[in-house]
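Progress note, project year one: complex with pyridoxal-5'-phosphate.
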Amino acid sequence: MAPYLEVLQDENANDFLSYEKPKVADSFDFERKNLAVATDLVRAALVTEVNNIDHDVCDAGDEDSFFVADLGEVYRSYQLWMEKLPQVHPHYAVKCNTDVEVVKLLGSLGVNFDCASKTEIDTVLGLGFDSLRIVYANPCKTNSFIRHARNVNVNLTTVDNGQELHKLKKFHPECDILIRIATDDSTAQCQLSTKFGCSLNCAVDELLPLCKLLQLNVVGVAFHVGSGAKDFDSIYRAVKEARYVFDRAEQLGMRMTVLDIGGGFERESFDKSSEMVNLSLNKFFPSTYTEQNGIRFIAEPGRFMVANSFTLATHIIARRDLNVEGMEAMIYINDGVYGNLNCILFDHQHPTAKVLKHDGEVYFEDNTRTETTDAKRKEFSFSIWGPTCDGLDCVSTKMILDANVQVGDWLYFSNLGAYTSAATTSFNGFSSRANVKYVMLATLP
Ligand SMILES: Cc1ncc(COP(=O)(O)O)c(C=O)c1O
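Model obtained:
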């Protein structure tokens, strides 16, 4: 066991080193007991940063919103995946959060990668990971990106229509191909099958014969049940359909060896979703069949790996008092839907704001609270707005906070690791990249 890192990129690192560092546990349960301590570490990082900012004299940019990333939480996600689905090799969906420390950590643990563009491929390769660890999981690709994939030796991709097969034949004929089939993702937080994935008929009647005709290496099937999936029966149906495609491929003399079960997993529902994966694989891809045919399982989890590991801190830049029953004021913060809270628009998230620091007092959750401090805390309603001039830039029409917050106070949003920093804009000239302070309470193997 060698230590990976305690705190990265933080000049106040020593403040955190006094924490007792437990060894990484063999089981997830043991790790769970240490979560309070990990929360302390996040708290220390938030408070240290916020205390260093004097809004009266700081330079523009010094008081920007920032993240605290708990890499230990990423590690715990990885551990949980390996515990529940050890036979399914995860390829982290880089699009979800392209933070290089996250990508480095997951890669160093043996997690592979799902890339959807040239830049994502280059990010992974730039960190020194082998191109053969990448699945280029975007069924509709720019010609030049396909040529780039061939040049850098990325040799596994997904396809869901005939035109793409012709493009691959022209630009990357040696590439291994996974046929992406559509799923029923109607109840997912973000539906993907409205855009990608072919019907079962198309897969077996059009694409398989075309692969054969073009002499392309079709090696398996991919699907995605939607990001933030809620209906795990769709996993069962998709695995069943995938097996049907495997069987038809065999009848056509093509041997399939890879099943890619995509993403859509969340930590909160992983007991159920992983159980459904195991049940479906056991039924439709039993070990006798997979061993005989050398079949391997892969997945493309994004949200699962990072959602819970990032906390966003923002401060209140302006406040408009209201004479409205049940609503204290409109508050304006220095991040919004054009920045790291773009997940409200693009990912259908509803992030919860909490008070981080008000009137010099730290409110961040947990064990520092006493009955006296709690007694002072009442409920106040606010609408929360981002910093741009667009009326669409609304973070919440009603959020209840436990302080009557004022300009200069800080708020925080937990669980903002997925589909946040990856999709920011610089609209209105606001900074698009937030600083990240890293903490980690774990010793890696
Ligand atoms: C092809 C593909 N794979 C994986 C993912 C990651 O999904 P999730 O973050 O829900 O695990 C996505 C998300 O859009 C995707 O489009």
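Residues 165 and 285 are 26 Å apart (CA to CA).
Residues 233-251 form the longest helix (19 residues).
No further modelling is planned for this target in the current period.
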